[in-house]
Every structure is written in structure tokens, then in C-alpha cells.
Amino acid sequence: MTKKKCDLFIDKEPYSFEVEGDFFWGKEELLFKQEDNVISKMPWYNDGYAVVNAFVKEEFQALKQSITNCIIEAIKANNIEFNEAEFTLNNYHKVINTDELHQKVIHITKNLENTDFDFDIDELASRFSKILGYKLTSWIEELQKTHVQIRISRPSSLDINPPHRDGYLSYWEDIINVWIPIEGCNENSSLPLYPGSHLIHENNILRTESKGAKINGNTYYVPCILETKEGPIHMERPNPKEGEAILFSPYLIHGAGVNKNKDVTRVSLELRFPKINL
Ligand SMILES: [Fe+2]
Predict the structure, then answer these.
(1) Residue 117 confidence (pLDDT)
(2) Ligand 1: distance of its center to the CA of 250 in Å?
(3) Cα 270 to averaged position of ligand 1 atoms, centre (Å)
(4) Phi and psi dihedrals of 5, rounded to 5?
(5) How many whole angstroms from 83 Cα to the centroid of ligand 1?
(6) DSSP code of 210?
(7) How far is the CA of 181 from the centre of ligand 1 (A)?
(8) What is the pLDDT of residues 119-142, one digit of tens each?
(9) How much is the pLDDT for 135?
(10) Which domains can be identified in the chain, with CATH numbers?
């Protein structure tokens, strides 16, 4: 394991943090499949992502309520004392005020299934199918379950994963990634993406293995991408509004979503829908 500095830009502002891991350059190959890809029919194919309309107002409110309930359940499951009636997502960090408590809560919220929500996740899969022109499912065959993740990022914290591609994990190779802002998502906190980076070949990427990167003492499932031969990693925050979602390729480099808000917890929802190959 070596300690290296990961330097990148988010909306032109430089960031740097330490990552621990074993780093290597990949083979001369492009993992992003160019033919019949889930984003092949999209005009944003070369960008690798787009912001799309996902919900009407009432649906968004219902989804947000369902996510709030999930987080309340996760807090209760850890026997943490709090005032349930007054709990709101933006003030999460005032209730969960240590790293240790936060790790306990996200241990639950990062690994949920469709059935944990009073919201029809499959309906969302069919909505995004219509946009992409490919059939999608919420069922992950390799994991034999559905997978839904609530991502919680406290203000002024290192609650971030490293820059990465989900597609390095075999069960996320042929999916569409969906990122949905729920609370506290704005120009200071929204998910950063590296436009066009799904087209970078592996021999131009320095990265770790899966579960091989540590930031701030936390090991991440996804490999960390430290640098590329295409120059500095320039990320952008598309900053979708309430009711919108970002759709993006699992090979698009993303992450490092530092929450620069002073006193607001950021909550977002991550969905991954495999493409059904007929
Ligand atoms: Fe990811």
C-alpha cells in the first residue's frame, strides 16, 4: 500500500486528498462497449451523461418522504436517541454528529432494496427505458437482488468516495447509472462528473483494484482513479434540480462529491439499472 495524493478540479477549483492503495496502469483496451451501448441512441453519447426530467412535484415529495423514512429507520436500528418528529434530512448532521454514528447509519442506507421504499422503483426503470430506447430492469442478476443506495454527505466532511468508474465492478458493467438529488444538492454539493471520460482507454488510467482504496480511513468498494494521461481530472457538477436526475455511463469517471455547504447535509439517491439484452 502506498499513500498518494489525488489532485483534481471540480468546476475549475482545485482539490487534493490522500488515497492509500496499490496503483497500476491498465491494459491497452477500452472497456466502454461502443456498439449497442445503453447510451448508444443518445445525442449525449460522447459526453457520457445528461440531466433528464424524472418526476413531477408530487412524486418527488413522495420519494423524499420515503427516503426520510428509510434514514429514520436506520437511525432507530442503531438505537440512537433523537427527536423523530423534528428530524429533517438537511439537519441530519446535527443528530448524527460523529463519524462513528454516521458509519453505522450508512452501513444500512448504502445497501437497500426496492422493497425498502414506498415508491415504485421499477416505474422509474421503465421511465428511463423510454428515454434511452433500451429495456432496463432493477434486478441485478449477479447479486440476485435489487440495489438502491441512499448517499448521505455531511457538510465540511470527507464523506466522499474517490473518483471512480462503477463499471469496474462486474455487476455494474452493463447498466445505466442514475443520480437523483434529494436534499441539500446545489452547486456546492452536487455529484461531480468528468465529461467524456468513459472513452479513456485503460492504459491511460492509473487506479487501484476494487476495495483497494482508502480515504480518511474508509475503504471503498470501487477502485480509485488517481490520474489519467489525458491531463488533469477536470470534473463538473451538472447540478440537477429537484425532480431531475443525471443519467450516466458506468464508465464515466465520477465521485469526489465534497459537500461544501456550511450547515446542510446532502442526500441523494443512486439507482443502477441493468440493460436487458434480448
Ligand atoms: Fe459510483
Answers:
(1) 94
(2) 7
(3) 8
(4) -90, 130
(5) 32
(6) T
(7) 14
(8) 999 999 999 999 999 999 999 999
(9) 97
(10) 2-274 (2.60.120.620)
CA–centroid distance, residue 49 to ligand 1 (Å): 13
d(CA 62, CA 221): 30
Write down the pLDDT at residue 278: 77
Query: What is d(CA 239, CA 10) in angstroms, rounded to the nearest whole number?
Result: 12
Provide the sign of the torsion angle of the four alpha carbons 210, 212, 215, 217, taken in this order.
positive
Give buried/exposed letters for 193-230 (b at 16+ CB in 10 A, else e). bbbebbbbbeeebebbeeebbbbeeeebebbbbbbbee
Distance CA 105, CA 96 (A): 8
Ligand 1 centroid – CA 6 distance (Å): 17
Q: Under DSSP, is residue 228 helix (H, G, I), strand (E, B) or coil?
A: strand
DSSP character for 108? H
pLDDT digits (tens, 9 = 90+) for 237-278: 999 999 999 999 999 999 988 899 999 999 999 999 999 987
Q: Which single residue is written with the C-alpha cell 447535509?
A: 265
**Cell reading at 74:** 436506520
Give the distance (Å) from ligand 1 centre to CA of residue 151. Answer: 10
Specify the pLDDT at position 214. Answer: 87
Identify the pLDDT of residue 68. 97
* CA 162 – ligand 1 centroid, Å: 9
Q: For the whole model, what pTM was predicted?
A: 0.95
Neighbours of 262 (CB within 10 A): 8
> What Rg do the C-alpha atoms of the chain give, in angstroms?
18
